[in-house]
């Protein structure tokens, strides 16, 4: 919620999170880090599968982010006070661990967060059907 609030304050014309909030605590600032607004307000194509979540700029087809599902540690969206936003935390080689905020107008936030949840659930079921084989010292 805090990250969504920061983005809403930083991006002109962003909707939501109009409620005044207390300044970030010191520990929260270290977690959130600096905002990267390079792609703010840009229309994107979001692709969600059991293997990854992919963000691509709709106009120029540039890949903004491609996060493997195992690198996503948290996803949230559709909260009443930020109903048009989805946030997820992912780790990648470029940004390390970062919180990514997506504005999803027209009630799409709930659909996006549900789809992410379904992808996690299907991935887990696939894992249960085909767990990785244990490597024994002899196999090394």
Describe the structure.
One of its GO terms (cellular component) is plasma membrane. Pfam families: PID. It comes from Cariama cristata. Residues 40-140 form the PID domain. The chain has a single domain (1-129), classed as Pleckstrin-homology domain (PH domain)/Phosphotyrosine-binding domain (PTB) (PH-domain like). 27% of the residues lie in helices and 28% in strands. It has helices at residues 2-10, 26-32, 108-129; strands at residues 44-48, 52-57, 63-68, 72-77, 85-92, 96-103. The strands form two sheets. It has a three-stranded antiparallel sheet. A three-stranded antiparallel sheet has the order 4-5-6, with helices on both faces. A hairpin with a 7-residue loop joins strand 4 (72-77) and strand 5 (85-92). The N and C termini lie far apart (46 Å).
Task: Write the SSE topology.
Elements lengths: L1 H9 L15 H7 L11 E5 L3 E6 L5 E6 L3 E6 L7 E8 L3 E8 L4 H22 L11
Antiparallel strand pairs: 1-2, 2-3, 4-5, 5-6
Classified in CATH, the superfamily is: Pleckstrin-homology domain (PH domain)/Phosphotyrosine-binding domain (PTB)
Helix content: 25-40%
Distance between the termini: 46 Å
Query: Judging by the overall fold, what is the CATH architecture?
Result: Roll
Assign the CATH topology. Answer: PH-domain like
- The largest beta-sheet arranges its strands as 1-2-3
Strand content: 25-35%
Principal-axes shape call:
globular
The total number of structural domains is: 1
Helix-strand sequence:
HHEEEEEEH
Low-confidence stretches: 17-21
Task: Tell me the structural class.
Answer: alpha+beta
Given this structure, which CATH class is correct? Mainly Beta
- pLDDT averaged over residues: 79
Helices, by number, come to 3
Radius of gyration equals 17 Å
Note the main sheet. Answer: 3 strands, antiparallel
